[in-house]
């Protein structure tokens, strides 16, 4: 049986069933994931066995970027909008099974009900957390690494280092 991550090169190796540390020797280290990914793409175009390569994020950090302050109008507007989308979806489904000819009533009922439920749930959620150490800010959270190491199996590590060194010496700035 083959899957999205299996293939002839992964037949013996496969994806680990349990969390396991990566194996291999470091052949390159990059400040961003994009740079590490480009390095692996370079290895692939150089006929390197990339099925033996792993990109490892090192020095992980959880970064929360504050987008803005939450207010009642923002919370209610967002709740109404998300409720409207869900209500529209439900209304469309109801409309598909409607026995009457070309009636927009199920869609309208789903839309209105979705907006009302979205408003209520958003208001209750915001009111219960507000002022008691709760969330009064909007933010986006990401898991990022301080650096990204590219590892290769020992039998090909030296060749991989040589290929990535040539990539870094290109006059166009290496990976750009």
TrEMBL record:
Name the UniProt record assigns to this protein: General stress protein 17M-like domain-containing protein
Highest rank taxon of the organism: Bacteria
Signal peptide: none
Transmembrane segments: 75-97, 103-127
Source species of the chain: Actinokineospora bangkokensis
Domain General stress protein 17M-like, chain residue ranges per copy: 27-112
Start and end residues of each stretch annotated as Disordered: 1-22
The entry's keywords: Membrane, Transmembrane, Transmembrane helix
Keyword Transmembrane helix: yes
């Amino acid at each position: 049986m083959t899957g999205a991550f299996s293939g002839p090169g992964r037949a013996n190796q496969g994806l680990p069933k349990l969390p396991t540390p990566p194996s291999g020797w470091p052949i390159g280290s990059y400040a961003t994931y994009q740079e590490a990914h480009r390095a692996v793409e370079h290895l692939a175009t150089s006929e390197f066995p990339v099925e033996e390569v792993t990109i490892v994020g090192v020095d992980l950090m959880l970064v929360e970027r504050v987008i803005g302050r939450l207010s009642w109008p923002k919370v209610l507007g967002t709740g109404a909008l998300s409720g409207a989308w869900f209500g529209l979806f439900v209304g469309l489904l109801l409309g598909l099974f409607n026995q009457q000819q070309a009636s927009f009533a199920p869609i309208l009922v789903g839309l209105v009900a979705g907006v009302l439920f979205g408003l209520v749930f958003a208001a209750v959620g915001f009111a219960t957390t507000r002022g008691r150490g709760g969330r009064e800010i909007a933010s986006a959270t990401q898991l990022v690494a301080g650096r990204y190491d590219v590892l290769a199996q020992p039998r090909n590590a030296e060749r991989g280092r040589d290929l990535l060194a040539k990539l870094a010496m290109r006059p166009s700035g290496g990976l750009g």
